[in-house]
Amino acid sequence: MILLLQNRQEYNNDLRAMIMAFYPGVKIVEDAAAAKSFLLTFRIWYKEDSTILTVCEHGDNCDDPDNLSPVDTLPYYDGKLLISGCGLRAKIVWDYRDKAVFRNVLKMAAYRLLGQLTDRKLPWGDMTGVRPSKIATKLLSEGKAFSEVKDYYKQVYDVSDKKATLATVVAEKELALVETIDFETSYCLYVGIPFCPSRCLYCSFTSYPIAQYADKAQAYVDTLCKELAYIAKQYGNRKLLAIYIGGGTPSSISHVLLDVLLTKIKDEFLSGERGAYLREFTVEAGRPDSITREKLMVMKKHGVTRISINPQTMNDATLQTIGRAHTVGQAKDAFALARACGFDNINMDLIAGLPGENLDSMRHTLDEIKKLSPESLTVHSLAIKRAANLKQQMDTFGSTINHDMNDMLDMVADVAAELSMEPYYMYRQKNIGGNLENVGYAVKGSECLYNVLIMEELTDIIAAGAGASTKLVFHQENRVERVENCKSVDDYIARFSEMIDRKKTGLKDKVED
User: Fold this and answer.
1) Quick one: which H or E segment has residue 472?
2) d(CA 263, CA 240)
3) Cα–Cα distance, 357 to 403 (Å, whole number)
4) What pLDDT, on a 0 to 100 scale, did the predictor assign at position 310?
């Protein structure tokens, strides 16, 4: 447990993100009475002209900042840290109310303190947030050279050369993929299927076991089709660029219901001129054990161009640990079946840092992936989410996760290159150990445009289904508005009219009455 003490709360999220980057999965509390001792005490005391940070590993509270012995005035960028009897201490000479500057000042000071305390440097330095390539995209769009963008990451955020290169390469690829798109007149459609064969240890998404909800699947799809009809009516004059069916596990519903859903999408969104601008149609088939020939042929019949088969690992022991109900053999069989059904753009998802896995485990997984030779590969760094069972079982799994994660990511990058893939999109999640990233690699021409558009928030994403979140992008105002559906399947069905009312309200500035 880590104790975080501060006399102001403006920068609480930034500080927590930085602490979690060094201590993934460790609980952070702000009440000294929460425990008799702590792994770490981190105290921040804000004054108008200066801020003092102290970090202690003694399990007790740090000295009162007002009673600390005088310290030299430390301009922020001189990189100095002071050693005090209590642990480490730094003094920032900057007005905390100047948020535009102070936020990054504080993050770097906290990063340096924790880095010195743990004797570590993080590959992304003090960068937090989910879209690290967004900075590179902006700088490249302004005409900055590749080398200038890399240097910016390194100098301002202390990012490693390898990660700075990755962010800049991804930004270049993203800009090339979207350069011909008119964001104001285009949109993407997301359709959520919140059912899964089982719940994975690390999962925090809205998902329901299909075995228990099988009798509600029909009602859910019927309701979903009604929402899709409403969306089609409202956005009928826009250019639909991409369709993405995700979950959950979309292939967990029967092929009959899948056919009903895809028929509705085809009729409402792809008939006549409406489908003229569609670049891709993705179904995240997901779990190998829920993929059948009938379901794949239904997808093929309705024009699905890209699917994802997600083994997460090619080690059977790990699959059992994380609660996946399939085997490595089933993953291989599902991939071969998809090829036999004519799919020539297949993605596979992997997770780095799973419980019990090390570099040898990842090496074995990648050897198996190479034999299959998919068109794209997405690697996720394990994130410990509050809503996941893993978070509740850290006493059991804490010592077995996140080992060699950055080296695993490097290994994936090397294999992706061997498969003629390049990185084309990247994002991060909260509570990833080491503040690492998720990266999508693809053979040229097989990139998922939807992934780029949603992560960079470039165009509207209209979402249907339980737990689905619509993103409305207002470029001139530099803001994004969200319209959320109910997460519960039962509520989504019972309160469908409310879902439509939410969309009517949210879309009022986007569509004409």
Assistant:
1) strand 469-474
2) 17
3) 7
4) 93
Q: Mean of the pLDDT values across residues 382-408?
A: 73
In the chain, what are the domain boundaries? 2-118, 134-178, 186-506
Across the chain, mean pLDDT equals 89
Q: How far is it, in rounded angstroms, from Cα 15 to Cα 11?
A: 6
> What is the C-alpha separation between 393 and 323, in angstroms, rounded?
13
Q: Is the peptide bond before 248 cis (omega within 30 degrees of 0)?
A: yes
Q: Which residue in 188, 269, 277 sits closest to 236, CA to CA?
A: 269
What 8-state DSSP symbol labels residue 352? Answer: E
Closest CA to 241 of 284, 296, 305, 194: 305
Query: Which long-range CB contacts under 8 A does 175-181 form with residues at least 24 apart?
Result: 175/137, 175/140, 175/141, 177/424, 177/447, 177/449, 177/452, 178/449, 178/452, 178/453, 178/456, 178/458, 181/241, 181/458, 181/459
> SS3 sequence, 69-112?
CCCCCCCHHHCCCEEECCEEEEEECCCCCCHHHHHHHHHHHHHH
Q: What is the pLDDT of residue 407?
A: 95
Whether pTM > 0.85 for this model: the answer is yes
What are the structure tokens assigned to 250, written together? 């979309």
Strand-pair category, 82-84 with 186-193:
unpaired
pLDDT in tens, 454-482: 999 999 999 999 999 999 999 989 899 99
- The helix/strand/coil state of 300 is helix
What is the average pLDDT across 168-196? 95
For the domain made up of 186-506, give the CATH fold. Answer: pyruvate-formate lyase- activating enzyme (3.80.30)
Instruction: Quote the pLDDT of residue 138.
Output: 94
* Contact criterion met (CB below 8 Å) for 25 and 202: no
Give the integer Cα–Cα distance in Å for 47 and 6.
11
Assigned token pair, 171:
């930004």
In the numeric block, which tokens belong to residue 183?
């964001």
Output b/e per residue, 132-145; b: 16+ Cβ within 10 A: bbbbbbebbeeebe
Q: What is the CA radius of gyration of the chain?
A: 24
Residue 423 β-bridge partners: 441
pLDDT of residue 69: 41
Q: Which two tokens stand for residue 403?
A: 């080992």
Length reported for the chain: 513
User: How many Cβ atoms from other residues are within 10 Å of residue 293's Cβ?
Assistant: 12
Residue 336 has what pLDDT? 98
Q: Which residue has the tokens 């309705």?
A: 302
DSSP 486: P
Q: Which residues of 465-500 are buried (b: 16+ CB within 10 A; e: fewer)?
A: bbbbebbbbeeeeeeeeebebbeebeebbebbeebe
Contact criterion met (CB below 8 Å) for 352 and 361:
no
With tokens 């109900």, the residue in question is: 325
